[in-house]
Amino acid sequence: METVLENMKKQKVNKLSANLGRRRMFSGFMITLTVISMILALTPLFSILGYVIVKGFSALNLAFFTELPAPPGEAGGGMANGIIGTFTLISLASAIGIPVGLMAGIFLSEYGRNRFGKLVSFLTDIMLGIPSIVIGIVVYALVVLAMGGFSAYAGGIALAFIMIPAVTRTTEEMLKLVPNHIREAGLALGIPKWRVIMLIILPTALRGIITGIMLAIARVSGETAPLLFTAFGNMYWSQSLNEPIASMPVLVFNYAISPYAEWQAQAWAGALTLILIVVVLNVSARLITRKR
Amino acid sequence: MFKGIAYIFGFSIIALLGIMVWEMFRGSSFAIEKYGLDFLFSSNWDPVAEQFGAWPFIYGTIVSSLLALVIATPISVGIAIFLVEIAPKWFRDIVGFLIELLAAIPSIVYGLWGIFVLAPIIREYIAPLFINTLGKFIPFFAGPSFGVGIFTAGVILAIMIIPTIASISREVLMVVPNVQREAALALGATKWEMIRTAVLTYSRSGILGAMIIGLGRAIGETMSVTMVIGNRPEVPDSIFDPAYTMASVIANEFNEASSDIYISTLIEIGFLLFGVTLLVNIFARFLVWSTSKGVQEAK
């Protein structure tokens, strides 16, 4: 590590001839640049929120939540099947992703302090970085081809593959925050290790784990790419989980790239609904941790 | 007993990744056998004639994500510096929350906004700036701009990876020991000189890691890019031309692929995407770990 003095010498900061006034001005200029960069980054956020709220609200009505999509070019209709479909897919994904992620997280924190655990921890990080479209392909090959068609199951499994590493990572981190003396106190009382984990450690870290799970659900609820060729999409109600199923993100995608003004307007309403779901999950997750 | 169950679930992570690699390999083996390495460097994409070359997609992915990185890095580092070194705490919390919100917006919403808001702005205002100046000398910046194109994709990607790079850089800057700062100030450095010599120099490799994690996200990003890049399977001459990326060709054409070889080539593109993001992520994690052991999570 170079010392600060050496760095400053190298970069000619302490040149005595340097004019202090000019240096101060340059400093102020660079600091202004950091403020400008923050404004530059937040402008798109406010623009997106503004457009989604204004355009979304004007297309939002009761029919949007209760009716099936209208045929192309016709006014009216809604995304009722997409809303139910998204909740179905999230439930399926949670049913698989939460228990697997939780247990893998417990493994990493409580039993994983060895080579095998380090490997699993590393692979979890790797899985977090896999593009979601790749997961779509894998589930297509694994489930869609095997079951002979697009289905809600396939969509749910694809979303679960995205949830698992996220839930594993947060569970591990939250469990590792539980102080060791709590574990030791439980074990000293003669409680078997698995009961110490389930009855003492897990409840202690529960708040953080629930926050992590909510953030994972929020992330998954807006995912589109992995659903395109797993859950596919459906303009009608799905009769069973073996059929293709509609979802909000896929409907928004199809509507947004369509040439029909009515559909484009509904895409904004869909985007507003999606953002509301995501923001509510995010904000309440934050509130849960803050109460601590 | 419980320990055994926990081990099984730990093993399931390895199994899951193994299954992924195996399925991608199995699905793409047909295309790999048939076209070999030519597949990567041929620019001819004509599914009807069974001509498959992935170069336009690889090129599109490289150019759009590098463009995103060039735009996003200075802004993200600026935000990180502002949050760690300058902003008061209450303001830091608000901006931190807003940046997290930017990260939480679904990709599809970025795409929708990109089509209807960003693309027209770029076509009318931003593209002419480049076309009428740089474009006169360098064909890479020549016009016309249709709004959708590789430049628009780069801008959308930049907006999407700013929260990633900014939040990791912020954590990297926060682990810089305060004595570093105090030493620089005591030697008479101005605030910016202190930041540059004591803070940025100290966290170089961490910021590089943050950039590479951002790059990994940009490479794999699908929906928003598909909606604004124009989807044209040719190598673009200009930065404002419509193009295609690896992720978006899969999203658009996978369901329409009629023949086995067509599907297999698309899976091979996916396999390539998987391999590239894998390497990028491993490299980035290594860099970030080497500066701050605490930063593990790539949001």
Structure description:
Chain A has 292 residues and is mostly helical. Chain A folds into two domains: 1-42; 65-290, MetI-like fold (Orthogonal Bundle), CATH 1.10.3720.10. Chain A is built from eleven helices and no strands. Chain A starts with a helix and ends with a helix. The model of chain A has no long low-confidence stretch (mean pLDDT 90). Chain B has 299 residues and is an all-alpha fold. The longest helix of chain B is centred in the first third of the chain and has 34 residues, at 2-35. Chain B: Part of the binding-protein-dependent transport system for phosphate; probably responsible for the translocation of the substrate across the membrane. Chain B: It holds the Pfam family BPD_transp_1. Chain B: InterPro entries: MetI-like, MetI-like_sf, Phosphate_PstC, Phosphate_Transport_Permease.
Key features?
heterodimer, A: mainly alpha, MetI-like fold, 0% strand, B: 299 residues, mainly alpha, disordered C terminus, Phosphate_transprt_permease (chain A), membrane (chain A), phosphate transmembrane transporter activity (chain A)
- The radius of gyration over CA of chain A amounts to 25 Å
Terminal-residue CA separation of chain B: 34 Å
Structural class, from helix and strand content of chain B?
A: mainly alpha
Share in helix of chain A: over 70%
**Which geometry of chain A do the CA atoms define?**
globular
CATH architecture of one domain in chain B: Orthogonal Bundle
The most extensive contact between chains is: A-B, 98 and 97 residues
Helix content of chain B: over 70%
- Biggest sheet of chain A, in brief? none
Provide the low-confidence segments of chain B as ranges: 294-299
User: Which CATH class of the largest domain in chain A?
Assistant: Mainly Alpha
Q: Give the rounded overall mean pLDDT of chain B.
A: 90
